[in-house]
Amino acid sequence: MRRFFSDFFSTTLGQILAIIACSSVITFGLFIVLLFYPGGPPTPPWPWPPTYRIANIARLLAQTPADARAKTALALQSPNVRLNVTAMPARCTVYTLDNGELQRSLRAELRDIGATVSVHSCDAREPNATIQVLVRLHPDDTTVLEARTQRIGPEPPRLTFPFVGALIFMCVGVAAMSAWAVSRVIRPLRRLADKAEAFGRDIALAPIEEEGPLEIRRAAHAFNLMQERITHSLHNRTRMLAAVSHDLRTPLTRMRLQLDTNESESVRDKLRKDIDLMQTMVSSALAFLSSGSGDENKEWLDLSALIATICDEYEEAGAVIRYEGPRQIRCFCRPDGMQRVLANLIDNALRFGETVVVVASVRAETILIDVSDDGPGIPETRLRDVLEPFVRLDPSRGGQPGSVGLGLAIVRDIVRAHGGELTLINRRPSGLTARIVLQHSTRNRVVEDEAPQH
Prior knowledge:
The chain has 4 domains: 2-39 and 160-196, no CATH class; 48-149, 2-Layer Sandwich (Beta-Lactamase), CATH 3.30.450; 214-290, Helix Hairpins, CATH 1.10.287; 299-447, Histidine kinase-like ATPase, C-terminal domain (Heat Shock Protein 90, 2-Layer Sandwich). Helix content is 49%, strand content 16%. The chain is built from 11 helices and 12 strands. The strands form 3 sheets. The protein has a 5-stranded mixed beta sheet with strand order 6-8-9-11-10. β3 (131-136) and β4 form a beta hairpin. The protein is rod-shaped, with a radius of gyration of 45 Å.
């Protein structure tokens, strides 16, 4: 599950959805904070009834002489608002959100007469039972108007179900619509990425449909042009080399016939070796050109049986070789291509070593095939170089006749066409291991059993 979320949030869709989700959560939190923030808007009908009542009384007393304010206040009081004009009121100290709303509304109403307002509750256990309002009508007054009131009726909840439900629906709706819109926008980009990955394995692909936003349509158009040019170039190169190879075989055949009629045995042997080398070079070049073409269809193959059969054939020819691995490895691959891979690696190992060991194993999601020899190995600095076409090392591994430096390059291209990788590892104290790593997906299954010996 953790890997799923990690892979999902590494995509463009996942990252955009994460941004939208975080924004929605932050928006929801800001709404909640504003509801409980003391400076936020009041909840009607509170505090407007006591505000208008006390504000009107304060304006009237502000126009009344100071010595008559106490009597006027007593005459204006009501059962819900008790009034008193005093110099030393007993101040209450309990502050609530309702007090803050009443204080802000009174200050706004009495701003024109320059009055100062202070509102507190007198009972912490029941803050709405008695609310004290102190109004100093003028800054120079020695007395203040004290009004005691209470909130009638229960306090309405701030977080009501309709409000919270509407807010959640808004956030979820925004996230869902954004996800749908983003998925439609990046769908052509995902299709472009799939086509680009498939193009690395098979150049004979249909052009990608140019759709989506302008930038993605331009990228798809550029990809189609690139694919067309590369495909055309590769086909022309393949046809040209195939024609050259075909034309070379005819004079090579004539040269061999002439050599067979030559009486000088030493000349015949020397020229025959040169002809064999030229034919090997032609065959290797053609094999390299067709190694990554993907013309062969994939099918189910018992990879263990194929390796064992190839090892038996080499052993019957006199080679010292053995196979170690499971009884059965089912693999979805190209049989001829995989056979060429194994044959090239074994030929290369037998060319420079006396004993060859082929080991196959399955680890988690990969299939490993190791072809090891006891030869001189390869310098560490050249392990990556020998995988390139036409690279030959000397004197130990590159000076033998018939080697044109394409064997390992062919193997690498075929393995990559199968979604795998080829690496070379030096053994201790001597020898070389060519390791093939293939993805062991749901299409590849293995039946482990006692390793056969050959």
